[in-house]
Structure to design on (614 residues):
């Protein structure tokens, strides 16, 4: 299921503004990689470059190469929708489709893929909701609006929607920043569970979270506003949080700099 | 540990705010006397509440404005009914079903059936033509066109709404008539076996011409309102669809259209309102014939508003009452249409409200 992501010298631009400069990293299958760093340092931009969501914005483009299991994600012949099905994404704020029920939300991706058979959709909905630790809470009200759930439940609904299409990689862009500590814990538990099946890359502002959930951590930073973000250090989470190589990383994780 | 950086950011932002406040205080030169008054929350008696301040004044103003709407509606209803009822009493035929219009004779005979039918038929055809095109334009402007093209094009659409209806009527009668007549003849030749395209002419000043002119008039309203609601689709919903691997059209179908649906229905209903009430353009383009026919290409067609415009000048007392009665029917049709639209919008309210 899970696949390996390799970035080499990735630079992302918004028009003429260079948001990240020459990022290279390898993300192994079935691991959780955390990206940390101060606001505006390009973590989210890098994340969005991986599933080609970056280019949705006008004038956005990237340089360098990004591959998934040796296949070039940015190959001009590659179908961009296929890339996004392979590399799912969970956003910062829970974004269930407001006009759809819980059930419709979960199967939205499958329906886009042309799955019509009710039994298949029902199965997928149940499995995905179970995987997302949400099934017990919503099984009696699948027809209710997805937007009527609590924030934490909505975010798990979005995770269920993402994994329902069976991606290889799941990107999470600060998935817990709008949630309370209990919901955050629920999502973190979920990440551990999903690690067996997916490669997970998560952007987070919460360093304890990065330390708790991830196997590897990448620290991004910028020199000053307007400069492109760079990957300062990328190593085992253990190493980053106990004995980082770079002074900048140490300053950041000990709270002396931000 | 992780919160430290953001905390320091907040602190520096706060400092800036304080400095700005000080600067403003010094700049405007607050008089020293203000320092002698007790500070808010300080000692002394609680301040008295203001009796006739801006608050009460503005409240009264807004209540009056709201009440005025009711007064106007009631006044119009009273006017329509008081003029219509005597005329309907004088009618020697059934007002609702009779299909001729002779209210000015000594024994008035008139019925609303033909006019109501014509009004609804032209409006429905106009909407059938206009709505798909309008939605297409709205989606193009909101999600497909490059910004450099979308802005001027949207402006032109809005300009179309500003053209007076009499101009549309004259244009339809003098310019558009010819192509519609040729098209009608073509339809009649090849599709004459369908009753709505049947008949042996003459063609041209028909329901089709009136409806097409109406469609052009309705187009800008539906387009610009739909564009507005489509533009309001939250970016995060669009991105959710794209991240699931939706193509652009699939993204539009899963997030933009469902989100905009109530707004689009409202836009269509406003368009229908305009179509139902349209007067002079139809008076100039329709054939003004009193019979109920589904044939859309033969000379003919009529509508309540167009009939009022055409017949008011030579109407006597009863005749005017009859025309006002027909206006009352138009009022009722519009009301029913609006209520139906509201019912549709409210049906899935649960989904919309929880989204807000």
């Amino acid at each position: 299921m899970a696949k390996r992501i390799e970035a080499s010298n990735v630079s992302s631009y918004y028009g003429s503004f260079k948001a990240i400069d020459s990022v290279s990293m390898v993300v192994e299958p079935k691991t959780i990689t955390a990206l940390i760093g101060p606001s505006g340092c390009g973590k989210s931009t890098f994340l969005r470059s991986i599933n080609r969501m970056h280019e949705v914005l006008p004038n956005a483009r990237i340089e360098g190469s990004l591959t998934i299991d040796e296949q070039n994600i940015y190959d001009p012949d590659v179908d961009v929708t296929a890339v996004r099905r392979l590399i799912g994404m969970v956003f910062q704020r829970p974004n269930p489709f407001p006009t759809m029920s819980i059930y419709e939300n979960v199967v939205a991706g499958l329906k886009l893929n042309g799955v019509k058979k009710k039994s298949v959709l029902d199965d997928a909905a149940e499995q995905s909701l179970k995987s997302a630790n949400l099934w017990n809470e919503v099984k009696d009200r699948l027809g209710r609006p997805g937007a009527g759930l609590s924030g934490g439940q909505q975010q798990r609904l979005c995770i269920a929607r993402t994994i329902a299409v069976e991606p290889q990689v799941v990107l999470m862009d600060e998935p817990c920043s709008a949630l309370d500590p209990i919901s955050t814990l629920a999502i973190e538990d979920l990440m551990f569970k999903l690690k067996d099946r997916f490669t997970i890359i998560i952007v987070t502002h919460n360093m304890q979270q990065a330390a708790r959930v991830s196997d590897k951590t990448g620290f991004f930073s910028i020199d000053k506003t307007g400069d492109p973000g760079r990957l300062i250090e990328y190593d085992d989470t253990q190493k980053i949080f106990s004995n980082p190589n770079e002074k900048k990383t140490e300053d950041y994780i000990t709270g002396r700099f931000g | 540990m992780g919160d430290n950086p953001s905390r320091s950011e907040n602190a520096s932002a706060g400092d800036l705010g304080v400095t700005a406040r000080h600067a403003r205080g010094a700049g405007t030169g607050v008089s020293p006397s203000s320092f002698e008054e007790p500070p808010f929350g300080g000692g002394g008696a609680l301040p008295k509440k203001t009796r006739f301040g801006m608050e009460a004044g503005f409240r009264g103003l807004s209540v009056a404005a709201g009440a005025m709407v009711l007064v106007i509606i009631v006044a119009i209803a009273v006017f329509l009914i008081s003029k219509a009822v005597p005329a309907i009493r004088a009618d020697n035929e059934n007002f609702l079903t009779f299909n001729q219009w002779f209210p000015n004779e000594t024994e008035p005979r008139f019925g609303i059936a033909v006019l109501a039918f014509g009004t609804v038929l032209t409006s429905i055809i106009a909407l059938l033509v206009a709505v798909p095109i309008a939605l297409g334009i709205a989606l193009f402007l909101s999600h497909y066109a490059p910004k450099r093209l979308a802005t001027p094009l949207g402006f032109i659409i809005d300009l179309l709404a500003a053209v007076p209806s009499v101009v549309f009527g004259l244009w339809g009668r003098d310019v558009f008539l010819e192509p519609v007549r040729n098209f009608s003849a073509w339809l009649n030749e090849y599709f004459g076996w369908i009753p709505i395209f049947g008949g042996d002419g003459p063609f041209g000043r028909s329901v089709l011409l009136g409806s097409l002119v109406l469609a052009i008039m309705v187009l800008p309203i539906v387009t610009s309102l739909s564009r507005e609601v489509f533009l309001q689709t939250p970016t995060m919903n669009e991105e959710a669809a794209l991240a699931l691997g939706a193509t652009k059209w699939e993204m539009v179908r899963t997030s933009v259209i469902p989100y905009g649906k109530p707004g689009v229905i409202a836009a269509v209903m406003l368009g229908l309102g305009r179509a139902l009430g349209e007067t002079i353009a139809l008076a100039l383009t329709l054939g003004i014939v009193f019979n109920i026919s589904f044939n859309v290409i033969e000379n003919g067609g009529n509508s309540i508003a167009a009939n009022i415009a055409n017949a008011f000048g030579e109407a006597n007392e009863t005749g005017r009452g009859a025309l006002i009665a027909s206006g009352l029917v138009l009022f009722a049709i519009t009301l029913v249409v609006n209520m139906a639209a509201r019912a549709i919008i409210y049906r899935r309210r649960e989904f919309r409200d929880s989204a807000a």
